[in-house]
């Protein structure tokens, strides 16, 4: 019997630390999933809009954004834009998002704005199979909206000395959101980023994180790779910029690992 997937899987990239690879992973994991046939939407919930820029959506082409969706002025499908990657779309963000918290602070469904907007997406034939939400570096109402909408959280951790610092706070927030707002929420996995094989510390961090988080840590580790950091300035995912580089290959591997983990989750 064919497996029918009527609704997209909603995965959220969250970590209240900045610079750990959330946006890079949203862009490149999204591209890799699209490359292997999934229909992917990236929702940019960071006012900085780095995911939107990195996917080639210039600021001047972002008059409407996820801000308009969260305040209830536009539907999600109205703000979605195509990218240069086949099967990959983006709902861009603008700096207006900075004000959203105050604007919807007293609305009763303020934590469910994103969830409801996704539920209202028309289920067209080529509907999304994955929605990846890129969060700001904070556990604010934007991140809470993402977690309330999610099936699962993907946590990028940078291979650096303080990698684990802040992780327990994040896990606690996930537990709180699960208890109060979204009972289906789980941790999908931890992805180690910016691994540097020449640096002993990177290896030690990998060992520590695996000891602490066990098999929640993906086998795939994303190496530090200059091509990955160059790609956004060309408005391209690294897979379009340099498919052969180790960064692109790692994101392809991560995508297949995630699909594999999804199959196991569904079978359970
Ligand atoms: P976050 O969204 O968590 O703030 P970013 O994805 O924006 O983090 O990454 C922070 C910085 O690190 C960016 O300049 C990005 O280009 C760079 N970076 C991320 N991943 C890699 C990598 N694998 N190799 C090299 N540079 C990376
Ligand atoms: Mg970011």
TrEMBL record:
CDD domains per UniProt: ParAB_family
Domain (AAA): residue spans on this chain: 9-187
Domain of life: Bacteria
One matching Pfam family: AAA_31
InterPro entries: AAA_dom (IPR025669), DNA_Partitioning_ATPase (IPR050678), P-loop_NTPase (IPR027417)
Family annotation (Gene3D superfamilies): P-loop containing nucleotide triphosphate hydrolases
Function: Involved in chromosome partition. Localize to both poles of the predivisional cell following completion of DNA replication.
Identification of the protein by name: Chromosome partitioning protein ParA
